[in-house]
């Protein structure tokens, strides 16, 4: 039936045109002002936040790798230093030991030498003492000889000569 | 996690679609039962019918009575349901009374509500109010100036085909005191091309479509206001809940529609594109709900798409730069005769064709979707012989429910797609208008 079959949706109606305009313009204004603006702003801010966070993470990562490299360098340096110190210590030790040995040797030599000197000295002292004693003895003998054979000269001389020879043999 | 959530949303909406298809069949069944009843004249309308009213066949001197249902016609049924109406039918004989703002030159403004017409079945009023009556949920005006003031009992409405100037026109009559009183439909701006034209009155009422637009705008505003509040309150935190649900739509329109098509100046136009997208999407979706407060075919009404396309046209035309006008009106590097004869006329025509295709595409897609769904629902009445055969109705329902479910799912896709396409093309038109010259 045409009554129902009135295809009215294709006819522009003044009332609907008017109300659509009013409602849509109002909707546009209110949504822009109170909904889309704050949402767009917060989206922009959040995007900035995320970008900042990513940048920061990248920077931190770079710094970290930089620090790590530095650490490694320091470690290597420390290792080297340790080796050097160890080497030095060993050298010092060797030196000390060598020195000590040398000193000990020298002391030993000195002690032996002084012992030899002592022996020599004692020997000389003993010889001097002996000579003195021999001298005294000679004098005593001479005294005795003098006492006994002062008259007999050749005999005396022979006698003295025998005495001296005796001493020399000793 | 989001993919999962999306899957559930789709599943729930699909299930809802199935349930609502069933609900619609139930709702549609009711008037048809009435049709069976009225074959034996009874009910309020018949009580008041005078001598001039129809006899049992429903055919009297005033024409076919609207109280007697003609044979079920799926096409008429669909066309009736996609139309805008003054009466907002909820269920059975329950109506949400909407304000009527009517203007007749020479008579002035009439402010009332649909309640004044004392509507019963099918939105047919039983009383006239200051010369206006309610026929099938639509306000019409009595031509007789004697009835232009006060209230009159209307016993029935009828329509008949009248031949005038070699054209067959349908004339509507109200039966008042046994007399046939001819009626005027409201003014439409189709220039008589679609059977309308300027009549004795203009209707600025809050109709079903206007009510749905207000409701949708309000719902969208509240949703986005909540999201915006959450966004400002939890500024340096991750989004969640409603905010997390709505923001991807905003970023989608911004990054996939506005930025690539408009370029660096996109921020000025973003609020319009977002408003258009969500307004159309919201209306498309609410129109999918087959019962109150949905079912209104708003974006499938040409008046609505005209306004939206006109705004896109105005925005793109008024932001157009010198470069755009130069390329439209006087394309450089083309011989003058060619420009005058071919290029400039085509380009100027294109200026107006662009918004025209924009308004037609949205209107046609949504209206077609509604008609197909209504046609599938009509299968129940066709199979069931307009409610007389229960077995036939059951068979019809068995065929109708899967088809309707399929169509509703498809329409859900179309709802998003058409909102997207409208926004996308608006962005493209604005983009070409504000494009800076390339240095070749």
Task: Give a description of the structure.
The complex is a heterodimer of chains A (170) and B (440). With 170 residues, chain A is an all-alpha fold. Chain A has one domain (12-169). Chain A has helices at residues 14-148, 153-169. Mean pLDDT of chain A is 87; it is low at 1-5. Chain B has 440 residues and is α+β, with helices and mostly antiparallel strands. Chain B is 55% helix and 15% strand. Chain B is built from ten helices and 14 strands. Chain B has helices spanning 2-38, 44-48, 74-82, 208-233, 241-262, 266-288, 302-318, 322-329, 336-383, 390-434, and strands spanning 59-60, 63-65, 88-91, 94-96, 99-104, 108-113, 127-129, 132-135, 138-142, 151-153, 156-164, 167-176, 179-184, 202-203. In chain B, the strands form four sheets. A seven-stranded antiparallel beta sheet of chain B has the order 1-2-11-12-13-9-8. A three-stranded antiparallel beta sheet of chain B has the order 6-5-14, with no helix packed on it. In chain B, strands 3-4 form a two-stranded antiparallel ribbon. The longest helix of chain B is centred in the last third of the chain and has 48 residues, at 336-383. Chain B is globular and about 75 Å long. The relative contact order of chain B is 0.11. Classes of the chains: A mainly alpha (170), B alpha+beta (440). Chains A and B meet through helix 1 of A and helix 3, strand 14, helix 4, helix 5 and helix 6 of B.
